[in-house]
Amino acid sequence: MGNLTFTMIKPDATAKGYTGAILDCMIKGGFTIKAMKWTRLTQEQAGDFYAVHKQRPFYDELVKFMSSGPIIAGILEKENAVADFRNLIGATDPAKAAEGTIRKQFASSIGENAVHGSDSDENAVIETDFFFSKLERF
Ligand code: CMP
Predict the structure, then answer these.
(1) Mutation test of ligand 1: which of 113, 119, 126 has the most ligand atoms closer than 8 Å to its C-beta?
(2) Segment 35-53, tens digit of pLDDT
(3) Assessment of whether the complete model's pTM goes beyond 0.90
(4) Are residues 76 and 26 in contact, defined by beta-carbon separation less than 8 angstroms?
(5) What would the DSSP string read from start to end of 119-137?
(6) Does position 1 have pLDDT exceeding 90, yes or no?
(7) Can you give the pLDDT at residue 136?
(8) Catalytic annotation on 53?
(9) Over the stretch 45-81, which tens digit does the pLDDT of each residue have?
(10) Which of 31, 65, 70, 126 has the most CB atoms less than 10 A away?
């Protein structure tokens, strides 16, 4: 069980002005920010980040969406970070997300679901390394 996870606030949420409210949920949920940046992925970068989903029917749509506007990428710290953060954000499909979760409050569909959270400690490392150098982590 690791103490770091990786998150993105996705283009739907940054466009709707939910950034501050979502960051507030993360902090109130007990997570400490170790690294954070406002950036925008190219289609190629979004494709690389989600390469594990390349064979899935929604891949092209996902890549287009994730490169459609700015995102916030971050590294969050908390004991049991991966599992606790997935509880805080809720199910991938906001229609199935529990009351009070970030996706229940801010996501509009399974594709445009406001936030990303790593699904394992191993992927948290891969995903943080995708966005952040050692010098950008505090
Ligand atoms: P995320 O947690 O970032 O990981 C993979 C993403 O693929 C997921 O959130 C959704 O944005 C997207 N996704 C997963 N399933 C579907 C689906 N059935 N249709 C469209 N997008 C999906």
Answers:
(1) 113
(2) 999 999 999 999 999 999 9
(3) yes
(4) yes
(5) SSHHHHHHHHHHH--GGG-
(6) no
(7) 97
(8) no
(9) 999 999 999 999 999 999 999 999 999 999 999 999 9
(10) 31
Best of 55, 82, 87, 92 for a ligand 1 pocket test (most atoms within 8 Å of beta carbon): 92
Residue 2 banded pLDDT, cuts 50, 70, 90: confident
CA of 135 to the centre of ligand 1 (A): 30
Confirm if 8 and 72 have CB atoms less than 8 A apart. Answer: yes
Q: Does CATH number 3.30.2310.20 belong to domain 4-42+70-136? A: no
The token pair at 14 is: 């940054």
Count how many residues are written for the chain.
138
In angstroms, what CA-CA distances link 93 with 44, 68, 121, 136? 25, 20, 22, 32
